[in-house]
Every structure is written in structure tokens, then in C-alpha cells.
Amino acid sequence: MTARIAVLSPQVADQIAAGEVVERPASVVKELVENALDAGAHAIRVEIEDGGKSLIRVSDDGEGMTRADAELAVSRHATSKIREAADLIGVATFGFRGEALPAIASVSRFELITSPDGQTGTRLHLVGGKRERVEETARQRGTTVTVRGLFFNLPARRKFLRAQATETRAVVDALTPLALTRPDVAFTLTSDERTLVDVRPAARPIDRLYALWGRTLADTLVPIAHREGPLDVRGFAQRPADAKPAGRKGYVFVRGRSIRDLFLLRAAEAGYRSAVAPGDRPSLILALELPGDAVDVNVHPAKLEVRFRDRFFVAKVVEEAVRQALGPLVAAAPLVGAGVGVGAVVGGGGDSWAEGPAASAAGAPAELFPTAAVASAPRSATPLLQVFDSYIIFQSDSGVAIVDQHSAHERVLFEGVMRQLAGDGAPAQRLLLPWTLEFTAPELEVIDVHRELLARVGFELEPFSGRSVVVHAAPNPHPRFDAARCLQELVADLAGGRFGGLANRLERFAATFACRAAIKAGQPLELAEMGELITQLLRATLPAHDVHGRPTIVQLARGELERRFGRA
Ligand SMILES: Nc1ncnc2c1ncn2[C@@H]1O[C@H](COP(=O)(O)OP(=O)(O)OP(=O)(O)O)[C@@H](O)[C@H]1O
Ligand SMILES: [Mg+2]
Asked: Whose CA is nearest to atom 8 of ligand 1?
């Protein structure tokens, strides 16, 4: 009888590993480019043909390999990056398993040309993981890996590859986060001779964003820079008014490595606190630095996920980081064309990140995104003038600001109501003569469901006969407040499902109340009232955005005025 159990041949083992690491051309590109970055490359060239299905080639100018190392590199569990299990904790290179090259080689026609010194070079040729040829060749220092006929020996997997355009898009999507992580490295991607990515080394991350996505998007981003305990959060958050329902960019980097983490993106979105219109999604680029022992990067075959020791702490800090980024006036919309107002992205000095992989290997925070020079909100602001009975013009520390009185008041009231809902509620005024108001059936239902919340903002209601409700107490948030009208509009909005897009029920209620309780456009205001509104607005957590995702403030930077008048 033959034995039932046998040890798999290395080739079969490699193919099984390939099932985890190599899913499609994009995953090959990711692994090869990560290797190039680990090898200290300054310029990386990626070429694909037919979406990578017929050819993928990645060339770098990194440290290259000797012949002996090259031969080892294509065998399983050969890695130069760790030696012992202990090294796994906090490993800072992209690769560390010694699995990618043999896995890729096992499912393709694979060629590796490499030289450590520009003198001696090695060319290695494998077919389906079997070594066919090793020979000497000439090459400049660096490495070129060419992968042809991906999955040629696994027809079932090859069948699952998608149309050329889809695979090409996936390759771009795989390359983009790597290009974001390392603005100091030049990247090119050509697809059937067409150049899709061509970015030269950039001094600052924001310059890399410009190069990849253009100014139109980059100018809508404000920098994030926040630290709490061991966690440092950098990156960019999109101004709420620029968020769109589709096509947002969402990237999370942990210790310089791109991961998929919807949980953290959600946490970042929570930082917007109803400043984004329902249904719109802001672009977010989050770069987290934390000590290696606070995060396990060794949990996913393609290293796309990490495990935090305390993910709720991380989420809380990310949310706070976004809130702070959107808080100051720097997040206010610029008055004139993108990029010239105070609202334009402010990047810090460009030298701290540029040390490259060595610095990230040391776990030094902050090299990915430099400290953002976040302008602080003015401590004092003098209202100057109300125009069209709707806008207030005032001078801020950095220029001239124009505030939409309704949006601004809405933001102020919203934040106040959120505090009241969480705390003791609002002071209510007992009415000497209670009023009676009529409502429709669905509105009465809404009143019933929201009784507790209505009480917290100061409405004390009692159902009366038929469709009428008696109001015993009402809030009085400002002298121009019309309590009966506010209550009717608030209840009608809630019944009509307005703000339905806001996920959080409290926020939905608060936004609706704020919208209906705020002073309206077209309301003439006294100078003292304007002053009070501006003061309260600048004290708000997110002063620059109302609860619909619209700006509350637009700014004309002083520098822009000087430029226009030829003074600068
Ligand atoms: N472009 C390159 N330049 C220089 N050395 C390279 C390059 N690509 C691979 N190597 C060497 O080959 C080894 C094996 O690469 P491979 O990608 O298979 O494993 P790894 O990067 O160590 O780990 P992982 O499987 O997690 O990617 C690397 O550890 C490295 O020493
Ligand atoms: Mg690797």
C-alpha cells in the first residue's frame, strides 16, 4: 500500500502560496515595486502589456543582487529582511516573508536581471517555477524583473483575469499608494506604450498629490497633523464642501505601508461631524506612525491589513485629527481660484521625510508627511459690515473673511445642541400662556418618537385632543428666535426625512434643529449681534463648515490682496 500522506513538492507549495500573494497583475506589480523600494531604489519603472496579462516588467536602480543572492531570492522563504522570529515585531520593510518572488515565478515565465555594482550582472530565467537558465549579463546597478504569461500554467486562474482596462486600472490603483508613500522616489507606469503615471521625486507629499491627481483635487485638501501619546496622524482631509458622492480617494498608511481599513476611514469621516452633505464622501489620506510593538503587520498574506493593539484608541485619535484639521480657518474655502487663498494646502518643510527607508526603518515618525503649518483661527475678529442682510465681512489674522450668517449660526447652534443632547439639555422658558399647535398625523408620530430629544433642546410638549399639541415650554437660543415656527418646521423636516443621509440620529436631529433655529438670510443684524455670532463661530470646533457641507466662511488672504494690488 502506498502512503497516503506526502510532502508537497516545493513547486506545488509555491503555487499554493501564489494563490494568496498573486491574485492578478496588480498584485505582481505591488510585490515587485515593494521589493524595489526595499532595495532603496530612487527611480522605478513599471511596464505592462495587455493589462499585465502578457507582460509585467519592473525595473529599479536599487542595490541589486549578487548571483548567489539572486539564485536564493527565487527560492521559498529566502529573504534578506529578517533573520529570526523576533525581527518580525515592528518590521519596517515592505517584504519579509521571502515568498513573493518564488510565488510569482511559479505561475509565470519569469526573468530576473540584476547587478549589485554595475559590473557583474546575473540573468535568471524560470518557467513555472523551474530554473531554465542562469547566465552572466551586463546591467547597471539595480534589478529588472519581467513576468510573462501570468498563470499560463494555471488556466483556471488565468480565466478569472478581467478585461484589459480593468486589470490596467487595478495596476494603477496598486501603484498609487506606493507612489504616495514615497514622494522622494520617481515612478513611471506605461501600459502598451501609453504613459499612465509619470511622477518625479517631490519635495513634499502635497507635490506628489499634485503630480498624481492635479491641482483641482489637491487644492481641496487641508493638512492633518495630530499626535496623541504614541500615535502620530498625518495626511490630508478634503474640505467638506468639495466632497462628492463618488470617486473619493481614501488611503490609509500605517508606518509607511498602505492598508485597507474601512474602520479607520469611517473614524475619519466621523471627524467631519455633519459638515459633509449626506451622501457625499470626502477624500482622505491618513498616514499613521506608531511604535512597532503597537501594531502587528504580519497578519495578511498580501500585507493589506494590520492589527492594532488598541484599534479604538487609534480610531478616536484619527477622528480627532480630522476634526482638528477642519477646525481652524485654514480649512475655510478660499475666495478666489483654488490654491491662492488661505485655504490652500500648507505643507511644512520638505526635509524631514526625505531620508527614505532608513528613517522609516528606524520607526521615526513624521517622515511620510511633514508637520503641517496649520494657521490658527484668529483670537479676535472685528465684524466690519453686513451686506445683502446675509453676509458679514470681518478682518481675520490672515486676511478678509466673509461669513454667511445663516450657515454660521447653524454651525454654532448645531454644536451647542449636540452638547445639550449629551448633557443636561437646554434651558427652557416656561410659557405663561401655553400655545396649541396643529400637526398632521405623520408629524404627531415624529413628535412622539422625538419627545425626549425635543425636551432636551427645550420643547416641552403635551398631546392634546385630535391633532393638536400643547407647548408648555420652549427654548430661547437667541432674541430673534421664533419658537412656534421653528417647532413646526423642525417637525415637518423630521417627518419629511430631511437630513435622512446623516447616519447618526442625534446629529440628524441637531442639524435639523440648528437649520430651523438659526437666523435666516435677509435678516438685518446689529453690530453687536454680528460680533457675537463671529466670536461664537470662531470658538466652534468646525467653524468653517455648516451642517450641509457648505462653507460658512470664505477667505481672501492678505497675500492675495497684496499680489492683486502689486504690492507683493
Ligand atoms: N528589486 C530587488 N532589488 C534587490 N533585491 C531584491 C529585489 N527583489 C527581491 N530582492 C531580494 O530577494 C529577496 C526575496 O524577495 P521576495 O519578494 O520574494 O521576499 P521578501 O521581499 O523578502 O518578502 P515578501 O515575500 O514578504 O515580499 C528579498 O528579501 C531581497 O533580498
Ligand atoms: Mg518582497
From this structure: 35
Per DSSP, helices labelled H in 160-292 are 164-181, 205-213, 215-218, 262-270
Decide: helix, strand or coil at residue 372: coil
Looking from the CA of 135 toward its CB, the CA atoms found within 13 Å total: 6
Mean pLDDT (the chain) is: 85
Contact of 211 with 219, CB cutoff 8 Å: no
Do 544 and 552 touch, CB atoms closer than 8 A? yes
Ligand 2 centroid, distance to 137 Cα (angstroms) = 23
Strand 250-254 and strand 284-289: the pairing is: parallel
- Given a cut of 50, is residue 105 above it in pLDDT? yes
| Ligand that lies nearest to the alpha carbon of residue 122, given by its number in the listed order | 1
Ligand minimally distant from the alpha carbon of residue 102: 1
Ligand 1 centroid–CA 257 distance in Å is 16
Amino acid at 139: R
CA of 96 to the centre of ligand 2 (A): 7
Q: Give the C-alpha separation, 489 to 516, whole Å.
A: 7
The per-residue pLDDT for range 319-373, each reduced to its tens digit, is 999 999 988 776 777 776 544 333 333 333 333 322 233 333 333 333 445 444 3
Q: At 212, is the pLDDT very low, low, confident or very high (cuts 50, 70, 90)?
A: very high
pLDDT more than 70, % of the chain: 89
Pocket test for ligand 1, best of 46, 63, 99, 101 (most atoms within 8 A of CB): 101
What length is written for the chain? Answer: 568
Element containing residue 435 per DSSP (H, E): strand 428-438
Separation of CA 171 and ligand 1 centre (Å):
20
pLDDT band (50, 70, 90) for residue 316: very high
Give the pTM. 0.77
Q: What residue ranges line ligand 1, CB within 6 angstroms?
A: 31, 35-36, 39, 60, 62-65, 73, 78-81, 95-101, 143
| Each residue's pLDDT tens digit, 466-476 | 899 999 999 98
pLDDT of residue 128: 94
Residue 201, C-alpha cell as written in the block: 521625486
Q: Give me ligand 2 centre to Cα 76, in Å.
A: 12
